[in-house]
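Honest question from a wet-lab person: if I give you the sequences of every part of a complex, can you actually get the arrangement of the whole thing, not just the pieces? Trying it with mine:
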Amino acid sequence: MHLLKNIAVISSSVILIVSVLISADRYSISSSKSAEVCLSCHEDESLTMEKGGKTISIYVNPAEYQNSVHAGADCADCHLGYNPDEIPHSKSIQKVNCGSCHDDTKGLENSVHSKVNCADCHSKHGIKPVKEIAENQTESCLGCHKGKSIRQFSTSIHNKKNTGCNGCHSGGHDVKNIQKQEVTTVCGKCHSESKMKFSNSIHTTLTKAGNKITPICTDCHGSHQILTSKYSIESEACLKCHLDEKQFPGESKGSAKFVAEYKTSIHAGLKGETESAGCTDCHGNHMIKDPNDPGSSVSRYKLTETCAKCHREIAEEFKKSSHGKALNDKNISAPTCVSCHNEHSIKSVPFSNELSKLNQVETCLKCHEEGKLPYKNYKGEEELISNYKDSYHYKALQEGKFDAATCSDCHGAHSMAKFDDPNSHVYKKNIAMTCGKSNCHTKELSEFEGSVHNISIMKNENSDAPTCTNCHGNHQILNKDETGNRIASSKGVIQLCSDCHNSVELNEKYDLPTGRTSSYLDSYHGLAVRGGSKLAADCGSCHGNHDIKASTDSASSISKNNLAKTCGNCHPGVEATFFQTKIHIVDKRADAPGVWWVTLIYLLLIFGTIGVMVFHNILDIRKKAAERQTE
Amino acid sequence: MTLNERIQHFILLLSFIVLIITGFALKYPEALWVQAFRNVFGENAFEWRGDVHRIAGVFLIGVSVYHIFYLIFSGRGREFMRDMWIKKKDITEMIDTFKYYLGKKEDKPRFGRFSYIEKIEYFAVYWGNFTMVLTGIFLWFENIFLPVITPAGMEIATAIHFYEAILASLAILFWHFYFVIYNPDVYPMNKAWLTGYISRHQMENEHPRWLDELENAESKKQNGADNSENVNELSESEKEKLSKDDSTQL
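Yes, you can. This is the full assembly:
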């Protein structure tokens, strides 16, 4: 190896010396330092020399030189101490010192480029005019700065909009490294509005308080590869820090775990879909605040509007709801969007989603667990909202019958309102429509619509007439045959109807016929039911259930012309019966004179006969006692 | 009382008591004893109550019809009806009895085989059975009779059935039971409905005229006098029993 190297060095030296000698012979070299003279040798592309153990080219492109701003200058103006007659030209190679002519390079000594040669930017012999250099500066920067991140600058929005490296790093000889604390200022030179907003953010506040890991512009936007904001800021930028459990420990709000739930949300875009809502869509971009700060876009009272950016219609509905009104009144227990939908782990709520229907119950009960309704029926027993879990609706849901009603099916989801709000789904006048909506109890609704009860409800404000819930219960609605269902047994039905129809207060208020309950209970039907019969007629057997109508209504099951048919339902063969007297015998003498006379006669008969008998026997025993005494 | 008559009486009393219990159980469903029934017989107690009531009704009707046939077609039945038939004497005896009770007459009338007390009892059963069976059948087959007697008629039938039940029960309690149970002469019980006999002493007290008649017939027979076959047979059998335990078959 050494041998080869030595041979190469010696041979190249010999070639050099010989060629110089030859050329010296050929040309007469004047003392004037004419560039032409120099170029006569240096235009040879194969011309090399050894420097520091390396072979370097000492070729000079004549065209480049002649087109440069230095075309008028002599080679020796820069290459000081070179004697063309000597070969090599200088025993001690002197570095080219641009500063000898260009005294405006002073700033350079303090700049990051202090150790960079002028030629690295300006080139050696093909020096261009300053203007031209400035125009192509970025290109020349990238000549040296070949880091991956910096190379991506060429695709950046800054590059496209002709903001070069100098835009941030200053140009010319004052090139700077930008320190972390300077970034905001540098960016702010152009992006003043964003800078102002950012300076109000929690990120800036924390930075000012001495936090060293809070982000600056470049942490989110990147430094060189800055795209338009639409593409550059993805939630990944935020999650870089916010998913770090070391920085955000624990499980409470604000923790990394809490933020990580976002990944499971519909907003994050499931199964490779694009993100529908990123961090910034809710939290804002530059002026991000602590969610507890009233100014935060996700603070309690601003959240509705934030969600409304995308979910406008739902938000408007919510604002009109009891929840929304309470929130508007700054009620501290009022729910916001996230109270039900969760903060980060927001899931889609398709109508048939089985999980949402069951889970919804838990969500609502979180707040309404203790809720009570004073009356289940008219002055009936108290009812708990949580009794819903005993209802058939809930049982059916659990069994996989997802048509069954959950909270929102009756109360509305965003439009829920209290029972006393006329717009509420559970306002007395609206309950039948709510229960009877399509896919639910439509048949029952059509029956109920023409009933005396519904007519009274629709005609009078605050009617006492029962709607669906007054008989079936509100939350604990049971199936027809379920034990515990009040209206599953005849006795329950009778008691239920009697709650109102045996009420002196209501009978007077609505001018209802009295004695319905007592007259029924004394009839054979009533006696049989009291005795435990499962077949005997109760109120509903004759009057109907949902379609109860007045006897004067020809469509009523108890109108004179329909009565025989109604009775015939249980008593086949009685269709030919002629009904003239009343069924509910309240005043015997008026309603059933025959019975009244029979009763009178029999009472006389009983008291008369039995009285005489007792009298006779008393006399008998008296005589017998007297006889025994005498004996 | 022959065994046949005792069985008739037993079926009558049994069906009567069952009818009373199952009937009032319908009318007073909340009474403690009715609740007890429900507790014992379970959830179908009401349906069973109705079925048992109807079965008992059938027995009552059956024994009543049999009794009519018995009266018409058996010799003893015809004799029974002759003795039971209401006569003028019964009225005077009743008046005399009241007089005796009130101290206006020294002696009690000498009753024959059946006194007015027993006749009232016996014919009250006719009245009671007639009304109860008639109204009971209306109520039983309500689907057939509703168009016939109208709902108002059904209400009347229901009322009659109820009040007649009360009347019958009270009559049994205060009239029949007085003379066969509470009455100090027979207390604790007149056992004739079980054994067929009453004592000679009771015979002398309550049916002295019949005792005379029986003894006259007996002596006549012993003297070889002519008697009708029936009476003869009857007297013979009675003579045997009389000598056995000093008691008379009613």
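Two things worth pointing out. Residues 86-190 of chain B form one domain. The two ends of chain B are 5 Å apart (CA to CA).
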